[in-house]
Amino acid sequence: MNILFLTLLDFDTLNQSGIYTDLLRKFAREKHHIYVISPAERRTGKRTQVLKEKNATILKVKIGNIQKTNLIEKGISTITLEYIFIHAIKKYFANVKFNLVLYSTPPITLQKAVEYVKKRDQAQTYLLLKDIFPQNAVDLGMLKKSGYKKLIYRYFRIKEKKLYAISDYIGCMSEANKNYILKHNHEISLQRVEVCPNCIEVLDMSIDENEKKRMRKKYEIPQNKIVFVYGGNLGKPQGIPFLIKCLKQLIDNKEIFILIVGEGTEYNLLEKFFNKYRPQNMKLMKELPKEEYDQMIASCDVGMIFLDHRFTIPNFPSRLLNYMQAKLPVLAVTDPNTDVGKVIVDGDFGWWCESRDVRDVIRIINQIVIYRNQISLIGMKSYKYLEENYLVDNAYEIITKKIKCFS
Fold first, then answer.
1. Strand duo 33-41 + 2-6: pairing
2. What's this model's pTM, rounded to 2 decimal places?
């Protein structure tokens, strides 16, 4: 079967680790032919090119800048995406008949490209729902349902509904995700929506004690403290101002060390905090190369997830899987609408509280300190839960059971 995957993820090979590349490799191993359209933003200086691999063709399409640019350029580039993708399909894949189109949110603005292939080839369509936009932007105050921003919201809401309408099936990250979509989009039938969680090829990313000591020494991280790590994007969705409030209350805690590794639009807020208070039990680092980052995560004791308390949509951060592969227990500090905390607590591999009251976070951290001898045991439960629930084979089976061309 010929499968087309449309994405904003910038990659040149399927031989990378990630929720999308792992899934596509699984399809390729099952003898399906994979075609990917992946962007090359103008700032990279790369031209449109076709890359070939075994059972896979990756079309790198030159687009405008979407990341690390101003809002106007990002907006224009996002809106013109579908036209650029359609042109690329006509030019490079004119003679390929696709059986299945896979695509994810973000963005929602590939709707016409999906619709074009669906109509041209009578292809089936499957949406991997990873983001609920524009409501997430409304939650964070970036868009509004009134005033002049209402027009922008309405435009994107119409695009969102059209994307759902042309999707034969919608795979959601969790039960809360699924229930939200059905509740706020009554035109979508229950039969078209299912849970298709973030899944990966599970690798044991844990390291032995000697390697942990080496990594901690290399980056000047204490050997004898409980190290809490926050790794990944540092943007508005992560509720960085609340994270900073928590850090202020933990400056004098001599039992713990907090490591923050990542980049994003709110990085400067953390940088200002570190420059002002110069905490001795904390460290802020920019993003590392992936291999080094993975080892850094594995040298810590507890992984942390933060989400802004204003969210009404149920996010389910994929960084959870990185912690689980490293056999770390997880502390989730989130809004009450996501069920990531419920999954963690019910799975008995971590802790959860709302990202509203700093005292709740401090209370849990103090509990972890008291029961520090159980951390590694809880980390093993984390890895076991990963193996039982988030194998890429699971996502493959969920999708192929629904799509007629596989039956």
1. parallel
2. 0.92
